[in-house]
Each structure stands twice: as structure tokens, then as C-alpha cells.
Specification:
Length: about 300
Amino acid sequence: MDSYSFSAISSFKTCPKSFEYKYIKKIQEAFFSIESYMGISVHETLKWAYEQKQKNIELQIDDINNQYKYFWDKGSLSKVKVIKINNSIEDYFNQGLELLTSYFQRVFCSDKSESLYLEHKFEFFLDKHIKYRGVIDRVSKTQDKVIRITDFKTGKISHPLKTLQLPSYALYIFENNLDTKIELSFEDLKEKREIIVPFCREDGKEIRSNLIEEITHIKDTNDFRAQPSILCMWCGYNKICENPHDSVKSTLENKNFFSLEDEYEKCCPKCGEVLVKREGKFGKFIGCKNYPECKYTRKEW
Ligand code: SF4
């Protein structure tokens, strides 16, 4: 591989086999999930909306909705698969519409920051040999003259400092801006909140060495073992994979005993591992079997 991205590293961590299919063998995925299709349409709409703002064009909510519909219809729905039972394509279309409507009213209309980059593709060298690339949803300058790196999330999110995504984007901004103050922001469209944290050049040193370590491991390995989990249902290679999760096998064999919704509920929404019953000092709870690597918990099944 010429260059590595946060998506490629995440793909390797989730399942080395799917990484091999996608980035080494360069096999096209058989389908895309409706969740990612909706996410792409939402992102395209937000980019368009901020471009209009840059041109001082005032938008109404109808403009946003029409543009979202335009991007939704323009995509290739024929390759899209709805995985969760009892959900339809229309449900996801409406979900995207709701996310945009709420963001428009909650943030967009009163947003006085200046867009510097939108859906910005970048590439730089982490060291002499490793090239790193990515796409940043939005880079803006706030009224306090702080550079904010924003990633719009249509699904579940974690804290911006708990993944390498935004910190790695900050490395790119620091490459060309020596005295910049940076904030990292996950815009959680679903939960209607924004998580913003400051990030300084010093913090970047550790991020750079973590990235180099992870990428070096991927470059040097020959071990692309399948790592089956409930996420296999969303994997575009699950028909060619030799060892997918049982949920995929039973779906492919058309066995009706399997209910994806039930199974999904019993798997960790953060990492796909199974959930188990636990007891702590505050009583019983449900936790991820992958603890302590994954710290997901909830109260009930
Ligand atoms: S089906 Fe599952 S195990 Fe197979 S490549 Fe995809 S994610 Fe990995």
C-alpha cells in the first residue's frame, strides 16, 4: 500500500481479513450498508450547505431537505443492503432528514465560524517511509481564532481523544500551521451534541508514534485472519469470506430461526463482541466480553 488512512487502520483492527480483501486484494464490496449510504448523503448535504454559507447564500430548511433528496437519489441504491429487520430504506431516508433538520436548527443557522476546508483530502508523511491520508469533513476558524477540526457522525461515537482519527488529522494541520490552536470536535448528529476538546502540538508527538507503530505492524504482518463478529452482517465480503459469523451463515442459508435484531442487541454496539452479565460494586449490569479493551456497559438486555 502507498499510503494508510484511519479507515484502513480501523478496518484491520476490526477484521484483518476484510482489510486484506479491501486494501491488498482490492476486491470490490458486494454491497454497502444503508447506514453508510445515509451517512454519505448527509455528509454531501452538509458540505453543500456550508459552501452556500461561504457564498453568503441564506438557506431555509426546505433547501437542505431538497438537496439531501437530490444526493440520496443520485447515489447507487441498487448496491445498498438493509441489514436490520423491520427497517426500510425509507426509514433511513427519514432518519437522515431528521438529523439534518435538527443540525440546521441547532447549529448551522447560528454558526459564525469560517469554513477553511470542506471534505478536504490530505496526505503527508508520518516518517520517511509512511504516508498517511484522510478526508476531513470540516476545518473552520472559530470567532476566537481557534482552528476546529470537525467530523460529522451519523452513528455511534466515542470521545475524540479515544480514537486516532481526529488527532491524526490535527497532525496534518500542524504540518503547515506552526502556532495554531486546535480543537477537535465530534458532531454527534444523532444525540444532538458536540464534543469538543483542545489539542496541542505536544499531544501530537504521541499520536504520531502510535500511528507509526500501528501502521508498521500492518505493513509487516502476513496474518490476515478472519475476526468474525456480528459486524459480519454489514461486511460487503461476507459471501466470499470463509469464516463469517454464524449470523451470516444462517442468513445465507435462509434459516429463519435467526433474528438479527435479537442477536444485534446481544452484541456490543462498540466492538461487536458478545455482551455478558456482570456484577460490580454498584450492582448488576451488562458489559462487553472484550473488557478491559472495550468498556461498553448498559443496564439491561
Ligand atoms: S465476513 Fe466477517 S470475518 Fe469475514 S471478512 Fe467480513 S468482517 Fe471479516
